[in-house]
Amino acid sequence: MPMRSPPTGSATASEPKRLAYAARLMASALLATAGAFGARAADSPKTYIFQCEVNGKKVTSDRPIAECANKEQRQLNPDGSLYRIVKPIPTPDETEEMADSIPGARFVVLEQSAHLAALESPEEVNALIDDFLADQGAAY
């Protein structure tokens, strides 16, 4: 897929709309990522304990455990009771399978990005969004 360059020179009439849309999309992605990792408000008095097994040993932390991203983690309340089970992050194959089950969805792997694709590869992300919207007949 060819990469699109951002417009040069003065902004067109649609440029502020595109920038606003991209900003909303990026904010949504950041909030979704924070939620996926059990983030909590800074002023929240409640803290959690995360547990999982690594090489047969129980690992405990005050935040999600990176070494356990591919397996379930127990999120415990401060008193040690179970708050919830944090599901593992889906593999690319599982994610592609999910996309295949959604009519009109696309699955794309951005090789140069890790967790924050809109920040790490903005040109590629914007081009993918533009192409998707154009295929949907969306005017933006």
> How many E-type strands?
4
How many helix segments? Answer: 4
The description of the largest β-sheet is:
4 strands, antiparallel
Question: What is the global morphology?
Answer: elongated
Main sheet: which strands, in order across? 2-1-3-4
**Structural class of the helix and strand makeup?**
alpha+beta
Average pLDDT across residues? 78
In terms of DSSP E residues, the strand content is: 5-15%
Number of domains: 2
Distance between the termini: 21 Å
The succession of helices and strands, N to C, reads: HEEEEHHH
- Specify the helix fraction band: 25-40%
Poorly predicted regions: 39-43
Query: Over all CA atoms, what is the radius of gyration?
Result: 19 Å
Structure notes:
- This protein has 140 residues and is an alpha+beta fold.
- The protein has two domains: 42-89, no CATH class; 90-140, no CATH class.
- The chain has four helices and four strands.
- A four-stranded antiparallel beta sheet has the order 2-1-3-4, with no helix packed on it.
- It is elongated, with a radius of gyration of 19 Å.
